[in-house]
Design brief:
The complex is a heterodimer of chains A (201) and B (270). Chain A has one domain (27-192). Helix content of chain A is 75%, strand content 0%. Chain A is built from ten helices and no strands. The longest helix of chain A is centred in the C-terminal third of the chain and has 31 residues, at 134-164. Chain A is globular and about 60 Å long. By secondary structure, chain B is an alpha+beta fold. Chain B folds into two domains: 35-89, 3-methyladenine DNA Glycosylase II, Chain A, domain 3 (Orthogonal Bundle), CATH 1.10.15; 99-261, Alpha-Beta Plaits (2-Layer Sandwich), CATH 3.30.70. Chain B is 34% helix and 12% strand. Chain B is built from ten helices and eight strands. In chain B, the strands form four sheets. In chain B, strands 1-4 form a two-stranded antiparallel ribbon. Chain B has a two-stranded antiparallel sheet with strand order 2-3. The N and C termini of chain B lie far apart (83 Å). Classes of the chains: A mainly alpha (201), B alpha+beta (270).
């Protein structure tokens, strides 16, 4: 494997496990708590997130590199990114409704919901901050989406169990959910350092 | 150029480009949607209970516009909603046949046997996974009230280990029927007057050992029914409500009294 490939795989693994957006960087907590009640919704949401993360990166990276940086407007990053991502998701939604109604129905309400999700914005900005190239940015976005998917699927399973349990009254509902999320997050901290050691970078 | 002005202009330009793009796209890729669908969606209750047989209120509204759904399927909405729907669609009004949930088990603590002492999580779903629950009968009510928890109108309660449904409170949404792990609750038209309070497919002799009020499959009701509305399959009597006239003769002849018939007060469906 070429050095570039190794680097891309390392970025992917790192994004999924080590720098997991939900459980490690605490971005995108809102859908993580809101939509993780059952597996079906969690999957739909996660697929929409993967989709939008990749798409947003594919658009914002060129804008930052070829538009904002050359004209000394890099400080407008956040504003411009939000604007562009929102418009883009809207455009994609219109296009999907027309040409791929099946996918439109599958993504359903989640597509507009995550338009300006902080995890989506976080990925696009992290790509710039870490100085990734275009391919690396895309891989990172896809990996982050996958990490979100993983966290959502695991957590919807956990919540299924928690619902059957009978915690003490003060812990019922959201408190026990937050505690479970914290424990899951601690578990993910166990992945610390594996990418560096696995790929020797 | 003033850097502040430049920044404002740049963002405004990007915004304008996006706006133009979206406007053009929404014109070019316009999908014709029937505005009646939104109106229908608004007049439906929005409970997404699924008792109409479609995937939620949105699904029902879409099917109505498509013309392949009847206007009287929304049970929680009742006649009011049916009337609004027929007004919007311009078709004749049809009565909603109100549904009511009934529990096909009468095996309360005093008439049925236990096979184990269950001390686990107090939900039917959990109890079911441990040898099918506490009761000796594997088909009957588990008695931990999953149905009572999901009922949106507090129509279900657990009494002596059996679910009892208050027909006056029941809105017929069928949430209890869907959640019951033993599938002993069903929704029937509110005109039904005779019900079989047993779901056991065990052989007659086994049923007798486990429960005093179980259906033993003796076929007496099948033979005596003047309308031939009852058939015994898998050792269990089943009533075809399309044929049943509600005379209640089966309840009189039933050996174990597991068939209940009503005077027309409506309270019989305990």
């Amino acid at each position: 494997m070429s050095e570039q490939m190794v680097k891309l795989v390392a970025i992917l693994m790192g994004a999924v496990l080590v720098n997991n957006y939900v459980l490690r960087q605490f971005l995108g907590i809102c859908p993580f708590l809101g939509v993780s009640k059952d597996l079906k919704n969690a999957t739909g949401m996660s697929i929409a997130v993967i989709f939008v993360m990749c798409l947003a990166t594919a658009v914002t990276w060129p804008i930052q590199t070829y538009l904002l940086v050359p004209s000394n407007l890099a400080y407008l990053q956040t504003v411009v990114f939000i604007l562009v991502i929102a418009a883009l998701v809207q455009l994609v939604e219109i296009a999907l409704k027309k040409y791929i109604p099946a996918l439109y129905r599958a993504l359903g309400v989640y597509l507009p919901l995550i338009t300006t999700n902080c995890a989506v914005l976080g990925v696009t900005i992290a790509n710039i901050d870490k100085g990734y190239g275009f391919a690396e940015s895309l891989v990172n976005a896809f990996g982050s989406g996958l990490g979100f998917f993983l966290a959502m699927v695991i957590f919807s399973g956990v919540r299924g169990r928690v619902e059957h349990a009978q915690p003490p009254k003060p812990f019922q509902g959201l408190p026990i959910t937050l505690i479970s999320a914290a424990i899951l997050s601690l578990a993910f901290f166990g992945f610390n350092g594996i990418v560096e050691n696995l790929f020797k970078i | 150029m003033n850097p502040i002005l430049f920044a404002i202009l740049a963002v405004a330009a990007i915004g304008a480009i996006c706006a133009v793009m979206l406007t053009v796209a929404s014109k070019v890729m316009y999908v014709h949607t029937d505005e009646r669908e939104a109106d229908l969606r608004d007049c439906l209750p929005g409970a997404n209970c699924g008792s109409c047989g479609y995937a939620g209120c949105d699904g029902y509204a879409a099917a109505l516009v498509g013309g392949d759904a009847k206007t009287n399927l929304c049970v929680p909405g009742g006649d009011d909603v049916s009337r609004q729907i027929s007004d919007i669609l311009g078709v004749p009004f049809e009565d909603v046949i109100e549904q009511v949930a009934i529990c096909h088990c009468g095996g309360s603590y005093d008439v049925s046997e236990k096979k184990l002492e269950y001390q686990g999580i107090m939900t039917c779903a959990a109890a079911k996974t441990l040898y099918g629950g506490e009761s000796a009968c594997a088909y009957g009510c588990l008695g931990y009230g999953d149905c009572a928890v999901v009922c949106p109108n507090n129509a279900v309660c657990i009494e002596d280990g059996v679910a009892r449904i208050n027909p006056r409170r029941c809105i017929g949404c069928g949430a209890c029927a869907r959640v019951c792990p033993n599938k002993i609750i069903s929704t029937v038209p509110d005109t039904v007057r005779v019900i079989i309070k047993c779901s056991s497919c065990d052989k007659g002799a086994d049923v007798r050992k486990k429960c005093e009020v179980g259906c033993i499959g003796c076929r007496k009701c099948e033979k005596e029914c003047p309308e031939s509305a009852i058939t015994v399959t898998n050792n269990l009597a089943v009533i075809d409500y399309d044929k049943c006239s509600g005379c209640g003769h089966c309840a009189e002849v039933c050996t174990t009294k597991c068939i209940k018939a009503a005077d027309f007060s409506g309270v019989f469906r305990n």
